[in-house]
């Protein structure tokens, strides 16, 4: 064959186009069928020549002839044949289309099983499949069991068919590279989205004496930033502030709005921790963001709360703006909505009303805050889970802790599967059950 450097360049082109691994299919099958029709020959193949084998990626022939060597010609498949002394291997040495009138008289066919054995090939014409930079990958071949000559027009058509095979391989290579680039871009977008999402959520919740706190974020899409948010942070004295909400939209705009909302809620709470006042301040900021602009008004839903230690439990004051009710899971397993009457969307309405309510978390009680991606998820019947479905799920789980609440919600989201169409953020707070000291018999918080 060619010298070792030339052959290595050729094999590198075969590897670059993944030609030996290419799938057979309609385009190559049609080329083989057309080649046989043009030559009025019984057999035609499309082959790729590797280092030590010839691979047939398309074959055409009449049903009466079941095989050409190892190649089924009634059901074309990718088949490997030895390379030494074969007509297809010799075809890549030629600069253009050529014909072997009688293969039994041709020294290059000495080791070809289809010449020595069945079906006894005598005539062989081939056109090399050549890359744009001149490297031959294989050939389009026409074969007959009788000696014959090939006309110039036939050989020119065979060259055109080889060019069509090369065009198809080129398209497949470009498609493969495009898919790989898209995969890399998607992976990069997912990494960026995860990084950005992490910056919008606290890296870890602080430890609150006498309280357990846990939170989770369940994204629907790995490469799109959602607008759900939550936080827990210290206020003055022994009080703690917490919030959870959802801004409109997704992507970069939602990320920017989420950052603004989180910063505003924390800053407003430092100025005045009254939950109603905090939401009113947030509304004023969002209204100002929209003033005089052409873009749709930015808005969100949110629940803001203040925790105040009180004996073996906590007093809780909540204010909501267009957000689903918080759910208290009591120590006896009863699930109770904590939902002030009213409470409108934040940032979009003129003079909105925000509602406030007070409650208490006793020893063994837990509180769950969540975004509507959970309650708007569809069940297997097609209906929304809604607050009643979530309440029933929590009631079935019974008395719980913050960590167990998150596990229950995680299992629920997993069970809903594709019925979940929006991101879900959850924040759970729980007061450990009271324990009795074996020595004194007194009770205290765990």
TrEMBL record:
Chain ranges of the PPM-type phosphatase domain: 208-431
ATP-binding as UniProt keyword: no
Keyword Thylakoid: no
Assigned keywords, A-Z: Hydrolase
Residues annotated as signal peptide: none
Entry GO MF terms: phosphatase activity
Domain GAF per the UniProt entry, residue ranges: 23-178
Protein name: SpoIIE family protein phosphatase
Lineage of source species: Bacteria, Bacillati, Actinomycetota, Actinomycetes, Streptosporangiales
């Amino acid at each position: 064959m060619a010298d070792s450097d030339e052959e290595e360049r050729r094999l590198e082109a075969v590897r670059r186009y993944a030609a030996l691994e290419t799938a057979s299919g309609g385009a190559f099958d049609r080329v083989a069928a057309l080649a046989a029709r043009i030559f009025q020959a019984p057999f035609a193949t499309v082959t790729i020549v590797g280092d030590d084998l010839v691979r047939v990626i398309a074959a055409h022939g009449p049903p009466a002839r079941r095989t050409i060597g190892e190649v089924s010609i009634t059901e074309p498949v990718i088949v490997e044949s030895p390379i030494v002394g074969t007509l297809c291997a010799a075809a890549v040495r030629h600069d253009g289309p050529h014909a072997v009138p009688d293969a039994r008289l041709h020294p290059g066919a000495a080791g070809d099983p289809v010449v020595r054995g069945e079906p006894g090939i005598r005539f062989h014409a081939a056109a090399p499949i050549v890359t744009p930079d001149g490297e031959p990958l294989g050939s389009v071949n026409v074969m007959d069991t009788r000696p014959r000559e090939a006309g110039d027009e036939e050989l020119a058509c065979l060259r055109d068919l080889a060019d069509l095979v090369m065009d198809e391989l080129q398209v497949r290579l470009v498609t493969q590279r495009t898919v790989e680039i898209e995969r890399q871009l998607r992976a990069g977008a997912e990494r960026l989205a995860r990084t950005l999402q992490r910056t919008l959520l606290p890296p870890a919740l602080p430890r609150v004496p006498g309280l357990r706190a846990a939170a989770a974020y369940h994204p629907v899409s790995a490469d799109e930033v959602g607008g759900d948010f939550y936080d827990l942070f210290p206020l003055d004295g022994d009080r703690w502030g917490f919030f959870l909400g959802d801004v409109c939209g997704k992507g970069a705009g939602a990320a920017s709005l989420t950052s603004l909302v989180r910063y505003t809620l924390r800053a407003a709470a430092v100025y005045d921790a009254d939950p109603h006042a905090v939401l009113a301040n947030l509304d004023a900021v969002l209204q100002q963001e929209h003033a005089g602009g052409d873009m749709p008004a930015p808005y969100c839903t949110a629940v803001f709360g203040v925790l105040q230690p009180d004996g073996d439990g906590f007093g809780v004051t909540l204010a909501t703006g267009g957000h689903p009710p918080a759910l208290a899971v009591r120590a006896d397993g009863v699930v109770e909505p904590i939902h002030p009457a009213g409470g409108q969307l934040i940032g979009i309405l003129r003079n909105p009303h925000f509602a406030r309510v007070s409650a208490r978390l006793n020893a063994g009680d837990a509180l769950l805050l969540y975004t509507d991606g959970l309650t708007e998820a569809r069940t297997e019947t097609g209906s929304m889970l809604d607050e009643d479905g979530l309440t029933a799920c929590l009631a079935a789980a019974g008395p719980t802790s913050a960590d167990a609440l998150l596990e229950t919600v995680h299992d629920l989201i997993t069970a809903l599967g594709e019925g979940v169409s929006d991101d879900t953020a959850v924040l759970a707070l729980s007061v450990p059950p009271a324990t009795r000291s074996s020595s004194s018999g007194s009770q205290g918080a765990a």
